Amino acid sequence: MRLTFNKKIIAVVSIVVIIAIILIVNSIVRNDQAKDANNNATVADNTQQKTGDVEGEAINAIIESTIEPEPSPTDKVNDKEVVEPSVEKDIPSLHEVYSEYFPIGAAIEPFQTAGLKADLLKKHVNWLVAENAMKPVSLQPTEGNFNWTQADQLVEFAKANNMEVRFHTLVWHTQVGDWFFKDVEGNLMVDETDDGKREANKELLLERLGTHVRTIVSRYSDDIKSWDVVNEVIEPGDPDGMRASEWYQITGTEFIETAFRVAREAGGPDIKLYINDYGTDDIVKRDRLYELVKEMLDKDVPIDGVGHQTHISIEWPPVGSIIESMEKFAELGLDNLVTELDMSLYAWNDRSDFGEDIPTHIVQKQADRYAELFEAFKEHKDIIGGVVFWGMADDHTWLSTFPITRTEAPFLFDKQLHAKPAFWAIVDPFTRE
Ligand code: GLA
User: What is the distance in A from the centroid of ligand 1 to the CA of 400?
Assistant: First the structure.
């Protein structure tokens, strides 16, 4: 009996000890969990602060890159190791950095509205332009047959992501259906020699143009406020400095007047209408464009601004000449937009090819020039309504096949969508005013 009693006591004591041990262990585990939760909350707080604070984000990115042995942006450009494309989350958003200056845009194809490319756009730009989807031949390939699918897709993507779309382009001498320029018998209008028929052809072409412009502007004027109305109508190499396109040969400058007037009628006073061209920094071309614009304004043609394409290279033109041109048009009360910015690695006449190994000093030269350019843009923000890149990352640029097929890298992001030295050159928080 006594032995049984002792055994009972031992059993009870053992159970009490076991329970005590379980309670102690449990309390230690819970304490750790509480600490974890606390740490997570702090991380979340920091993340929130980062999203609201661009400089904080940049500084954080710099700190993180010192802690982690990640390759630097410079290394990434020339890195032959396979680096997977990704969208860097902890770098500043380009359009947020520039929010006090002007919107930042990119020209894209519809396929870029999905996946990583879309994520890169969503992070860095607040304007979108159709690289091709809104050109005349895309929207009205044959008379009366409008094709809205791709244009609508871009507009929807922009709306869903709080971006503005700017329209490019209602009129151009290329990427336009041949049908515009054929007479009722199917002959080329430019070949007509009879004066009476030439006049009838002109009326027909202007009527077709009016329909094209009215139909498109009416469809999108609620969603699109900034419009390239005519593109590349100046050509200093042609006899009177006006590009001798079919538009010009058949109508003189009336196609320009008609396009602007119909756009205004269809879109109302709230849309802004631009005349767009490349090489606007060149004094001869700039002055011919100025003369045309002045003549149009004197006739009350509703032009609101000049689009400066700004396809430049790391060599040319001087930043000062780009700004001087903008100042000249601003004197006419016009807005200026940078509409198609990219920066080739090669001088205009250079046909060489760096291949996959772009020299580091070239990458740096590009960064320095981007820094100079954007410093000048910021200084002149009062005469610049927006800056649009003709692309987003080096994986997709018209320059890789023009003027020859070769390696090109004209943007701020490399083929893996990672920020290049050029990005940091225009975003570095320590150089911000
Ligand atoms: C011009 C046009 C753009 C585009 C580029 C190159 O600048 O305005 O639409 O076609 O050429 O692709």
Answer: 13
